[in-house]
Amino acid sequence: MSYNIHHANPPSRKDFIDLDAIAKVINQQHPDFVALQEVDVHTGRSGRNVHEAEALAAATGMHAFFAKGIPYDGGDYGIAVLSREPILEGHAYQLPSAPELKGEPRALCTVTVNRNGRRMLMASTHLDVTRPDTNRLLQVRAIAGILSKAGMPVILAGDFNAKPGSPAIQVLDSAFTRTCDSCPFTIPVEHPNRTIDLVAFKPAGAFKVLDHQAIPERYASDHLPVIATLLLKKL
User: Which PANTHER family match (predicted)?
Assistant: First the structure.
């Protein structure tokens, strides 16, 4: 699953935090991995004592690893991965940006797990929204470089703030295989009209894609959650 959770603030309820709604979405789908974006940790707006990634892990029976993007409101704001399998290693990488664009700093979050006796890596990211495409191109190229050294099957998911066919997604497609060709729209939740939340993997022969869909859940966040079903092939 890839899910931009809007810091667990339902768009229809200003300043209200509803982690239970996000956990319900995850539990209904029962994914093995969740790439989360827009995650608050110990912020004033979401609760000084609340670590949203860890709270969601507890509510879903999963394990969590958080990667800070920026300091925010007395705490941290960033991305995370939830894993059904115990996390063997977790890493956070800061992604590059062009200083003149003054974009919000972005990150890549990775976890390594054992899956059916094999090591694999799950990654979450959230690319810059700034126009033009300069920062997204810098960031997706950096991600491709980092994950090229993984030495194991990789799944990358996140909010790319770019549509299929755009320069950034063309770079993504040169290094990864997306789980969809005609990808379902993911934003806005009411009358969605574009796709910016994606799942991809490498190497191309490591997985078989069984399904890809956007879940029509319109309350919990301003993005629809995306579910891709992949079969990890035997060696």
Answer: CALCOFLUOR WHITE HYPERSENSITIVE PROTEIN PRECURSOR, ENDONUCLEASE_EXONUCLEASE_PHOSPHATASE DOMAIN-CONTAINING PROTEIN
Question: What is the rounded radius of gyration, in angstroms, for the C-alpha atoms of the chain?
Answer: 16
Q: What is the pTM of this model?
A: 0.97
Query: Where do the domains of the chain lie, and which CATH numbers do they carry?
Result: 2-232 (3.60.10.10)
Helix (H) or strand (E) holding 157: strand 154-159
Structure-token pair, residue 177:
């295989």
d(CA 205, CA 153): 9
Nearest to 143 by CA among 167, 113, 104, 176: 176
- Torsional sign, CA 163, 165, 171, 175: positive
The answer to whether the beta carbons of residues 189 and 10 sit under 8 Å apart is: no
Amino acid (one-letter) located at 183: C
pLDDT in tens, 118-153: 999 999 999 999 999 999 999 999 999 999 999 999
**Cβ density class 118-143: b for 16+ within 10 Å, e for less:** eebbbbbbbbbebeebbbbbbbbbbb
Which among 26, 24, 92, 80 has a CA at the least distance from the CA of 51?
80
For β-strands 118-126 and 89-94, DSSP reports them as unpaired
Burial of 104 from C-beta contacts in 10 A (0-12 / 13-18 / 19+): middle
Q: Is 198 in contact with 180 (CB distance < 8 Å)?
A: yes
